[in-house]
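Readers of this paper often ask what the protein records in our data store actually look like. Below, we set out a record of this kind in full and without editing:
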Amino acid sequence: MSTSGICYLVGAGPGDPGLVTVRAKELVERADVLVYDALSSPVILSWARKDCEKINAGKRAKDHTLTQDEINALIVEKTRAGKTVVRLKGGDPMIFGRGGEEAAELAAAGVAFEIVPGISSTIGGPAYAGIPVTHRDHCSQLTIFTGHEDPTKGESSIDYAHLAKTPGTKVFVMGVARLREITSALIAGGADAGTPMALTRWATTGSQKTLTGTLATMADIAERADFGSPAVAVIGGVVSEREKINWFETRPLFGKRIVVTRTREQAGALSHGLAELGADVVELPTIRIEYPDDRIGFAEGVTHSHEYDWLVFSSPNGVEKFFDAFFATYPDARSLGNPRIAVIGQGTAQKVKEYRFAVDLIPEKFVAEGLVEAFKAESIENLTILWVRAEEARDVIYDGLVAQGAIVDECIAYKTVPETEDPTGAAARFREDGADLVTFTSASTVENFFKLGLPWPKKCAAGSIGPVTSEALRKQGVEPAFEAEQHDIPGLIAAIRQWAGA
């Protein structure tokens, strides 16, 4: 019996979240339940609603959190319960993704479902390695097969002798563990041992790595490089085009694993900027933003904000919490009156502008001390100022403005607390694989990172957004490799690029 629930079998693409379809993003944002595989990008998972139930199905090679039968039962159960379920599968769900089996189970259960195709790693992976799977100078035919089957077993559904004689490009996935058997079977079937071959691991992500060789040499090359899955293999003359059009692996931060410790909601701008430059970004949020302990006091501050001469915002979080509360109280922006607005940093200024308000004062140095100094050019004696701040903020702004004769009230808009969720296993990845750089954007990200007790990897650098953050690192016994000259996200990205170049 069909219910109001529906299950979407969604292709998540090969790894780069920029390759996800608009339809897939829309559905992830709407999902009540998100069932995802181990290869799903953390960025895609971050699109889900806060109240979305996220379930890691963990399907990867020989490591399955849930069996296929358990996954089938799970998506049927959740859909029958009237939920909007998104079954997020790497690549395209219908290309070696067992999406057909899951669709059949949903159909048999009589529940509604839809299939949303995605870019398959068999196409996207080679493209990011600079290899066109078709090219008029090389071939006009493409064959895709799975390497999951053992070519040495008598019951294999793949006829390797026939495949060896098939012209054109051949692409296979899930075959690293049987690479030697596959290449040997193709050569035994009559394929030219000198045919160019490429193997690309973690295609379309910052961890991408490509090996090139021939059908005869690739197994040895992969073993020497300790090359593991997930990987896509390309066999054919098109591999030679990589020398000319290898575009992704030449980006300035390619090959650098960089950890982002900002809150999950705020990580996007930094992560995106680094990924655009080719970095392998690991989002490991160490803090999250919550409402302050004194929510009544916060509400009163917002309610009376129109009575002040100045509003001071020292972070984008403060701006967001303030205006969300303001517009929940007042439907008309004119209710704010006419206070002047001061901020620290371009990021905070931009957040204010998103609410269609202008900024009247921004210091040259994006730190609390810089704002206090900037106010010296204003006449604020006996003027009233409402400082919208974090619960754990330093007293620099309050003390500095009071010393200039202002009447300052504090509006505590939020507090930072340690992040306890790690849905993508970022901490385990950091512990096992290490990193080249860990970025810190506040003292609280520093303090809470070290509370995790993760070992600091050898030769790993720490990057700081500004002097307060740098001081927090030194208190932990870590000297920052660099400090951003401009203390905001664009400044931090510029500093990282300079560090990588050096």
